[in-house]
Amino acid sequence: MCLYYNFCMFLDKARIKILSGKGGNGMVAWRREKYVDKGGPAGGDGGKGGDVYLVASSDISTLLDFQYQSIFKAENGENGRGKSQHGRCGKDIYINVPLGTIVKDASNGKIIADLTEEGQKVLMAKGGRGGRGNARFATPQKRAPQFCEPGEAGIERTLDFELKLIADVGLLGMPNAGKSTFISVVSSAKPKIADYPFTTLVPNLGVVRKQDGDSYVIADIPGLIEGASDGSGLGHEFLRHVERCRFLVHIVDVSLENPVENFKKINYELEKHDKRLSQVYQIVVLNKIDAISAEQKRNAYNEFCKLADDVFMISAVTKEGLDDLLAFMAAKVQEIPKPEIVVDVQEDDAAFDNDDSSFCIYKVDKKSFVVEGGKLFRLANVTDSRNSEQIYRFQNILKSMGVFEALTQAGIKDGDSVKIGHIEFDYYE
User: Could you tell me which of 156, 169, 233, 245 has the C-alpha nearest to residue 201?
Assistant: First the structure.
């Protein structure tokens, strides 16, 4: 005898925003110790910002949690300190997702990860590097550098999740074929059951534990109708969930007028969605035999034996024929390996690239310009406008980034003012 239990209903699409940690700023500091004749630069480096990872976990089977929390931020790195003390690195953040989650970059639709194995970890956004303190810039020629570096910005990304169930068995069939009743009988799943189309609005998962203690997962896919692969009805939304199944159980309502035609329609929709699906092994289950006569049972069985190799007759309501079917399904789970699905995962440099050197120039009035940009703003934050050496270095960085050239193209004239963060200066070519 089999024991049964279930997984809960689930959400199979979600969108989240992730932010990796900003790197800490370096520090300008000096050694001041008793009995030390000459001190020196002692500004420590800023700590690295935290990374953002996605981790595949079998502990969850739905994306429902992301409806309640959709923004995830790693910790920023600490700023450097005096006495050459480095700032603490920000803590990484690990986001658990169900097995079978495909991750896309929402900005371009590229698939950037396919998480199918327990514990599989993928870096989604790397934290910014910490800025160097002034101790790092000391040389024999320049023994007292008056400047430091800002920490790099973190990365902000929007990700789309799409869950493709990793189930061993997929249940197919027309609306009202009895799939929901079947999964409620063989597991503890409690789907809504009623005599009208599309009672099942989302797939249900059930886990069947066998006598030997092993278990396998079955997925109840919402009812398909003719045209589902083209967007009709609900089934097209969930056809992707049968792609990773070992085999399919096709439940047919034999109490209807033309069950063979319904069987062919479903298989046609499978083929239109993905030709590989039409070649996946199917067990045909003729359901609701308690509602037809003995002669009708024989005729239906003979008809379907011409279409499929393995045909079973059951009544999900009375449980007639269920034991034989479940024993056969358990054997097939052992016999048929999981399909190898190749997903075109594209290289995504954005997870590792923290370069935010882009900037924008705005003309405020005839003689005033404002320059904005993440890196420039952080450079201004660690620049003391009263220190000529720091201002000189700041201007050299602006030149190397092409800021002055861009200002010339924007029409700046000698004597016009330029503001970047808290620093404001007059421009002279």
Answer: 233
